[in-house]
Amino acid sequence: MKVEQLFTGCLAEMAYYIESNGEAAIIDPLRETEPYIEMAKANGAKIKYVFLTHFHADFVSGQVDLAKKTGATIVFGPNANPNYDIHQGKDGEEFKLGNGKITLLHTPGHTMESSSYLITDEEGNTPCVCTGDCLFIGDVGRPDLAVKSGSITQEDLAGHLFDSLRNKIMTLPDDIIVYPNHGAGSACGKNMSSDTFDTLGNQKKTNYALRADMTKEEFIKEVTTGLVQPPQYFPNNVKMNKGINISIDEIIKRGTTAINAEMFKEMSEKQDVLIVDTRSKEAYTTKGTVPGAWFIGIGGSFAPWVGALIKDINQKIIFIADKGTEEEVVTRFSRVGYDNTLGYLNGGLEAWKAAGYAIDKIGSISAEDFKNKLEKGEMEAPTDVRKESEYLSEHVVGVNNFPLDFIHNNFAEIDSEKEYFLHCASGYRSLIAASIFKANGVKKVTDVRGGFKALKEIGASLTDYVCPTTLL
Fold it and tell me: At the N or C end, where does the chain have fewer CB atoms within 10 A?
């Protein structure tokens, strides 16, 4: 039996292609369907099933489009009631796939419909289990995303998760491979490893949540402690995953419309249109951008930052892209439900400048110059835009914290007359923050090249503790 993990770094998400004797199944597919269809075609197989581990919150999954194009049956576990046809599986139900089978294990806790899928090969062996967001490598799924007021609490869900792990997952052989749905960088857990798979036996030794002598009460306390507010787009994606959405093909066709500079300028000046510059950090900083554009480069964690920062899931978006990446950009917007992309700047920034339009640029400073100016007291507003937890762990003395994650909630604290010097860990988040500062009327914004990493390397004065209060 062929089992292939399909990792998407932008989302830290893993889908799975499983095949036996001409029949294939996909577990937790992304929005775009063609990669799965092409894989099956290349292997001479027909996609028979599309299995979902749960209603995802951090991306829009592609089960409806994929089933429509292939005739596959969509399978969820118990308690799932979407607005489209599915086979609602039962705990322990077996699904024949070629000469092997896939067994549904109902493992509620992250959500109530959450299920894992045990793979049995042609010889009757069980080489692996796809655990969705029940069990990660180094962590377990957070139990606060499916809370329902007056019905179920995060403590209730954590209790279900404890039972699912102990009664369904930890009883499997120690040498079985655990294939989760997410890895490090996802907001669906709090302590995920960068590894994308591991043996169950090793996870029993290293994963805090699988400690053999842990009581249920200890487990509930452990997994509910330290949870940060989930990204604001999560409920929207859950809703979309329960419904029927615009076809990915239609979204790509509309989103890859080429817009000339004159029309792009006209659209950019409308209040209900957002410009996003998706180019590389280098292109953005050296060549400048269209005034008012936000920088969110596809070279970084694009989709999660789109979801965290663009409040309206229906936001009209026009974008700037490196040539040849236009379809990829639209696809990545759609992965987190931002389907209202209207097109891109044809000819890029060169066409914009050729039309005689002004460009905007973010200031830039080296880590060495930042350190010197800071030590001499020549800086008005040195600002670290990393997460509060990163800042509290270690930061440059004299630098205040203003996390990018909550930039819109706290923007009233920003004085548009001050000059801000922004840094993050390595320079991606600080450019995003700088562009939003600029778009919101802050005239003097400077990015620190190389970020905290560079500052640490050159010996900037650091502190490893600060009272958790944001001061600007």
Answer: C
CA separation for the pair 254, 391 (Å, rounded) = 41
Q: What are residue 73's phi and psi, to 5 degrees?
A: -90, 130
Would you say 317 and 264 are in contact if contact means Cβ atoms under 8 Å apart? no
The two tokens of residue 77 are: 């576990």
Q: Which runs of E-coded beta strand occur in 415-470? A: 419-423, 444-448, 462-463
Separation between Cα atoms, residue 52 and residue 54, nearest integer Å: 5
* Per-residue pLDDT at 472: 41
Are 104 and 196 in a shared domain? yes
Task: Please list the residues that pair with 289 across neighbouring strands.
Answer: 360
Residue 454 belongs to a domain = yes
Q: What is the pLDDT of residues 403-460, one digit of tens each?
A: 999 999 999 999 999 999 999 999 999 999 999 999 999 999 999 999 999 999 999 9
If 0-12 CB within 10 Å is exposed, 13-18 middle and 19+ buried, where does residue 292 land?
Answer: middle
**What gap in Å lies between CA 217 and CA 464, rounded to an integer?**
32
Report the C-alpha gap between 406 and 33 in whole angstroms. 33
What pLDDT is attached to residue 413? 93
Residues near 189 by beta carbon (within 8 Å), at least 6 away in sequence:
133, 136, 139, 140, 141, 142, 182
Kindly compute the dihedral angle of the four CA atoms of residues 21, 24, 25, 29, in this order, to the nearest 10 degrees: 150
Last residue of a domain, one of 202, 236, 270: 236
Would you place residue 470 in the very low, low, confident or very high pLDDT band (cuts 50, 70, 90)? very low
Cα distances from 326 to residues 197, 341, 345, in angstroms, run 32, 11, 10
> Do 127 and 165 fall within a single domain?
yes
Q: Is 333 exposed, middle or buried (0-12, 13-18, 19+ CB in 10 A)?
A: buried
Average pLDDT value for residue range 221-226 = 94
- Has residue 149 got a pLDDT over 70? no
C-alpha span between 471 and 405 (Å, rounded): 16
Q: What is the rounded CA–CA span in Å between residue 370 and residue 364? A: 10
Cα–Cα distance between 394 and 466 in angstroms, integer?
9
* Three-class DSSP category at 421: strand
Q: Measured between alpha carbons, how far is 93 from 117 in angstroms, rounded to an integer?
A: 10
Task: For residues 166 and 114, state if they share a domain.
Answer: yes
Residue 7: how many other CB atoms lie within 10 Å: 12
Residue 190 tokens read as: 């709090």
Token digits for 469? 């209060």
Residue 42, phi then psi, degrees to nearest 5: -65, -30
